[in-house]
Amino acid sequence: MVHIPSAYTYNFWAKSPTEVVELTCLMPNGVVIPLETNRNITLAEIKEDLWDEASKYPLHGTLKDAPSYVFSCINSNAEAEELRDETRRLCDIKPFCSVLKVIEREGVKSDRSLDSQIGLLIGKGLHEFTGLRNSEVNDFRWKMRVLGDEVAMARQKKSWMEKVRYQFPTRLAPTATIPKNIECRLKDGNIVLVTKFETTETAFTFQISHTTTPYQLLVSILNKRANTLMSKGYPNDFTLKVCGQEEYLIGDYPLIQFSYIQDCLAKDIIPTLVTLNRDSVSVDQENTAENVEADTLQRTRPSFSTLTLRKKGKHISAWKIEEPFVFTVNAISRLNCDAAHRTVEIGLQAGLFHGGKSLCESQKTKETVVNSDGSCEWEETLRFDIKVRDIPRMARLCFVLYEISKTAKGLKSRRLVKDTKQEFFINPLCWANTTIYDFKSQLKTGAMTLYTWTYAEDMQNDDLLHPLGTVVSNPHIDRAAALMLTFPNYGKEKSVLYPTPEKMVEYARKLRESSTERSIQEEPDQESDVGKLQQLEQLRLLADRDPLHELHEQERKIMWALRHHCLLEIPTLLAKLLHCVEWNDHREVAEATALVQQWPKLPVEKALELLDYAYADQNVRSFAVRCLMDVSDEDLSLYLLQLAQALKHENYLSCDLTEFLLRRALNNRRIGHFLFWHLRSEMQVGAVSVRFGLILEAYCRGSQQHMRSLFKQMECLGKLKCASEQIKQRKDRKAALQGFQEFIQEPHCQEALSNVLNPLDPSFRWKRIKIEKCRVMDSKMRPLWLVFENADPLGDDIYLILKHGDDLRQDMLTLQMLRIMDKLWKREGLDLRMNPYGCISTENRVGMIEVVLNAETIANIQKEKGTFSATAAFRRGSLLAWLKDHNHTEAALNRAIEEFTLSCAGYCVATYVLGIADRHSDNIMVKKTGQLFHVDFGHILGHFKEKFGFRRERVPFVLTNDFVHVINKGQTKKGQAVEFQRFQSHCEQAFLVLRQHGGLILSLFAMMISTGLPELSSEKDLNYLRDTLVLEMSESEAQKHFRSKFDEALCNSWKTSLNWASHNMSKNNKTT
Distance between CA atoms of 61 and 872, rounded to whole angstroms? Predict the structure, then answer.
C-alpha cells in the first residue's frame, strides 16, 4: 500500500489539522517540492522557505526571483484561486490537498482574482453561474454589471463630502422640526453637548441653539480652543464625528435634524462629538482600474435581437391566440416513494395561478401505478378552461404530485376523497411551479423538465397546489423527482410574444372608444350623478379599510365602474381596485395596465402593499417601485428586510425591485451592508441561491472597497463559529470557556478578529477582542458573550452575543416591527421608551444580538429580592425594591418608575398586537433606569406553546401584580390610582395609533408570507393581526374592545404571576 499523507484527504482542513502541514508545491519548472510547514505560517514565509529548499533541487537555475511569482491553489469552493495577498495564513487559505502551485505574475487578469474573492465571500463560486448556461442568468449578470460600473464610475467623480456621505452615511430626520418627544428635553430650545479632540484630553461643553449647523459649531469649538489652548485652526480643515462611531455630522443641516442628536436627547444622554482633522477620515480611494471601462462592456453585450425578438414577422401576439391552453404530461422519474416494496398509485394535479389566485379550474391526470424504479409514464394531455390570450404575463403553472392511499400519512394537508365503498386519502408528495412565459415574454414551447420540491410538513395550504412557492426548479437534481412536460407551439414557426405595456395601453384605448360609441345613445340623466356621488362616498370609506378586507361583489362592480373617478379623487384605492380586475380576461388586464400607467404616485405606506405576493403583475410592481424612489435612506432601512424578502415573489431575475435595491445599496454603504447580510444569510436556500447570489455578485463588483470590509467580517464570523462549534462539544462550561480562550488566542484568530466593522451596526468598528471579558452563556445553544475594544480610543467597548444553532430571522422581523411601531408612536408624540436592540442573521442558524447593558431579567430580580422560591413571582414588592436599590434619590426613582410605566405600556400593546407568545420572567428584562423590554421572540402571531394540552398563556397582555405595583408607586389601590389610569391611557393611545396604520403593518407581514418563516406561511397568519387590531370595528368600538381586554389582563394578573411561578420552579429544578 502506498502511504497517502493525511494532508491529501479531502476533509483535512475541516477536521482540526495538526500544527505541522505537509505541503506539496508545484514549481513553474516542472519540479514538485514537498515542504513541511506550520499551519499558522503566512504565504510570504512559505515562499522564502520554498526558494531556500528549491536550491537543493534540479533546474534551480531556471527559476526567476521569488517576487516574480504568486501562489495559486484550489480553494474550498473547488475553484482555482490566485493568492495575491501574501500576508494571509495557510490555515485561512485551506488549499485543497495542501497543494500550492507557483505561477508567473505577468499578464494575469485582475478579474480572475476578483471573481474568486467574490465567490468566497458570497458562498458560491461564480463558475457555477457560468455553468448554468442559462440565457436569463447571463443577461441579468450583464445588465447588473453595467449598472454597478455606472454607479462606481459616478462615485469616483464625487466630492470629499459626498464620498464621506456614501461611506459613512449620515442619518438624518426628514425635516428640521423638533419631534414632540424631544421638545420637552431642550432647555429653552438649546442642546447641551460635549466635544472632544482626537489627540488631546481636552473636552468642552456647549449649550447651543438647536438650529446651529455643524459648521457653526466647529467655529465655536475652534474659537474656544484658540482661547484656552492657544492653537488656531480653520473650520474647513475639520469635521465632527460621533464619539465611538464612524458617523460624521456633515452638511448644512441644523444639529437637531441629525438622528444621532435626536436619539441621545430621547434617551437623556448628552451627545458627545469628536473634532478631528479631515485628513484623519479614512475615505476609500476607489481605484479607477478596478472598474472595467464601459466600452469593453458594450462589446460583450448580448445581441439586441435575442433580448427583444421584436422583429416583424418573426413573432405573433399572444392576444391573437384563441385556442384553449393545453400541454402534455409525459412522465416522472426518480420518485422517492418506496415503489419497489409496495404498490404506489399516484396522480398529478396542475393549476394556473396569478398572485396566489386561481385563473381557472385545475386539472388532474388519471391515477397510475409507479414502477419499481420510481418512474411512471402518462403521456396525457391536460386541457384548461382558459384561452391562451387570457393568460396574464405573470401567470404560474403549478403542479403537485400526490399518492392515493387508504391511510393518512400524518401530513396536515391530507384530503379525503369519498368513494362509494371506501375512504381514500390524498397524500401530497412533491410540488413544482413554472412560468408560462420566459423572461423575454415568449410563450414557452417544447419539452421541459421540472425538478420538484418535497412537500414540507408545515405547509398550511388549503389547496394542494403551492402557488406562492418558488418558480425555480430544485437545484439538487440528483435527489429530486423529475417531471417531464411538453408544451405545444401555438405560433407554428413563429414565436408567441406577450404584448408590450404600450401595445396593451393602445388596445385598452380602442376598447374604450368602441364602448363609448355604444353608450352615447344612453344619455345619463341628473339622478345618476347624485347616485354616483353617494357611491364615491361609499368608496372613500373603503379606502380606509385594511388590505385583507373582503370586497362584496356589489362593491367590486361599483369600484370598477367608477375607476376613472377613483384615479382622480381616491388614488389610495388602487390596491383594492386591482382586486376587482379579472386577470383571466385580457381586456380587463389591458384596462388595468392603462390605469396604472396614469395613476398618481402613492405614499410609501400604500405602495409597499403592492409588493406583496398578491400583486403579481409586473406593471403594478414597477409602479410600486416608482413610488418608493423618493423614500429616504432612513425609511428604506426600516423596510429593507421586507423588500429583500419580497424579491422571492418575483418571477424573473431582472425586475425593477432588484435594480432599485441595488442602486440604493451602491449609493449608501449602510444600506449595502444590511442588504448584503439579508441576502447572504439565505445563500444555503436552494430556491433563492442563484437570485441572491447574482445580486450579491453585482453588489460586490460595484463596491469593491466595501467588499474587502465585508470579507473581513465574514472571516471574523467564521472563526467565532468555529469556536462556538468547539464549545458545544464540551459538556463542562468551565472547560468550554478555557477551550474558547485558547482558540481565540491563536495568531490566525487574533488577526481575523481585529479591526472589524460590527455586522450589527457598521458605524461601530472594533480594534480587538477582550478575551478576559468574554464568556460562554448557559442556555442550551451555548451562545457566546463577546466584548471588543472600540477602534475609537474615546468610545466605549462593544458588547454582543453570538448565537449558533438558533434561527434569528423571526427575532429580526419582530424587532424590526417594534422599531416601526416606535416610529409611528413617536410621530404622534408618544415616546414609549422602546428598546428594539440590534439583531442580525448572518448565515443559516448563525447570527448576532446586541447586548443591552445594565439590565436584568425579571426572574433574576425576583430571585435576588425574594428569598427565592416558587412563589417569588407572587411577591409584589421585589421589582420596586430592586429599582429603589439602583435609584437612590426620590427624583431618580420617580424617573425610573415613569420609564417603567411608558415602556411597559409600549411592550404590552406590541406583544398583544403581534401575538408574541411564550412570555415569562426569563424573557422580560428591566434596565436599572427602569426601562422594561422583551427579548427572545421565538413565537409570534399567536403560535402559543402547548403544555399539558392547554395554552399556558391565557392573558392578552403581560401584566403581573409586580408590574402594577411599580406603576402605582407601591400604592395598594389596584386600578384606581392616577398613575395607573395614565398607564391605561398610554396603552389605549398606543393601540389606536397602530390601528390607524393597520394597513402598513399587514402589508409588511404580507410581504413576508411564504418566504421561509414557519409561523408566517399563509393568509391565516395575517388574520391574527387583523383580529387583534379589530380593523373591522369603528374607532370607538375598538377602544371599547381594547378596554375589555385590558380589564381582563388586570383581573388575571395573579394568573400570570402563577404561570411565572411555575416557570421559575421548573427552571430552578434544572441544573444549568
Answer: 83
Chain segment 596-635, per-residue pLDDT in tens: 999 999 999 999 999 999 999 999 999 999 999 999 999 9
Main-chain dihedrals φ then ψ at residue 413, nearest 5 degrees: -95, 25
Q: Which of 417, 409, 405 is nearest to 455 (CA)?
A: 409
Domains of the chain: 6-107 (3.10.20.90), 110-157+632-702 (1.25.40.70), 170-280 (3.10.20.90), 319-497 (2.60.40.150), 499-515+531-617 (1.25.40.70), 855-1069 (1.10.1070.11)
Enumerate residues 6+ apart whose C-beta is below 8 A from 961: 874, 876, 1053, 1054, 1057
Instruction: Give the N- to C-terminal CA distance of the chain in Å, as an integer.
Output: 51
3-state secondary structure 159-183: CHHHHHHHHCCCCECCCCCCCHHHH
Cell of 828: 404622534
User: Sign of torsion, CA 649 655 656 657?
Assistant: positive
Phi, psi values for residue 124, rounded to 5°? -155, 120
* Whether the Cβ atoms of residue 593 and residue 394 lie closer than 8 Å to each other: no
Under a CB-based contact definition with an 8 Å cutoff, are residues 591 and 511 in contact?
A: yes
d(CA 915, CA 28): 66
Cβ contacts of residue 802 below 8 Å, gap of 6+? 720, 721, 724, 783, 784, 786, 846, 847, 848
Q: Mean of the pLDDT values across residues 95-110?
A: 78
Q: What is the pLDDT of residues 732-778, one digit of tens each?
A: 888 889 999 999 999 999 999 999 999 999 999 999 999 999 999 98
**Residues sharing a CB contact under 8 Å with residue 821, sequence separation 6 or more, in sequence order:** 834, 906, 910, 913, 994
C-alpha to C-alpha distance for 863 and 850, rounded to whole angstroms: 25
Concatenate the DSSP letters of all residues of 981-1043 into one string.
HHHHHHHHHHHHHHHHTHHHHHHHHHTTTTSS-TT--SHHHHHHHHHHTTTTS-HHHHHHHHH
Q: Tell me which DSSP letter residue 778 carries.
A: -
How many CB atoms lie under 10 A from the CB of residue 347?
A: 16
Backbone angles phi, psi at 238, to 5 degrees: -120, 165
Rounded Cα distance between 703 and 287, Å, is 11
The closest alpha carbon to 858, from 835, 884, 878, belongs to: 878
Distance CA 701, CA 682 (A): 20
Residue range 1000-1020, pLDDT digits in tens: 999 999 999 888 888 888 788
The dihedral through the CA atoms of 109, 114, 116, 119 has a sign that is negative
**Backbone CA torsion sign across 985, 990, 991, 996:** positive
Which residues have CB under 8 Å from 1071's CB, separation 6+? none
Q: What is the mean pLDDT of the chain?
A: 87
Q: At 1029, which amino acid appears? A: L
C-alpha dist (Å) from residue 756 to 761, 766, 774, 900: 11, 6, 17, 36
The DSSP line for 65-86 is -GGGEEEEEE-TTS-EEEE--T
Task: Identify the CA nearest to 984 among candidates 967, 998, 960, 1006.
Answer: 967
At 800-815, the pLDDT tens digits run 999 999 889 999 999 9
CB 315 within 8 A of CB 491: yes
pLDDT attached to residue 458:
52
Count of CB atoms situated within 10 Å of the CB of 742? 13
At position 993, the amino acid (one-letter code) is V
The pTM of the full predicted model, rounded to 2 decimals, is 0.90
According to DSSP, the residues that pair with 386 across neighbouring strands are: none
Q: How are the residues of the chain apportioned to helix, strand and coil, as percentages rounded to the nearest 5?
A: 45, 20, 35
User: Which amino acid appears at position 254 of this protein?
Assistant: P
Distances (CA, A) of 974 to 109, 643, 1057: 76, 45, 15
CA separation, residue 961 to residues 868, 879, 968, 1052 (Å): 17, 10, 10, 9
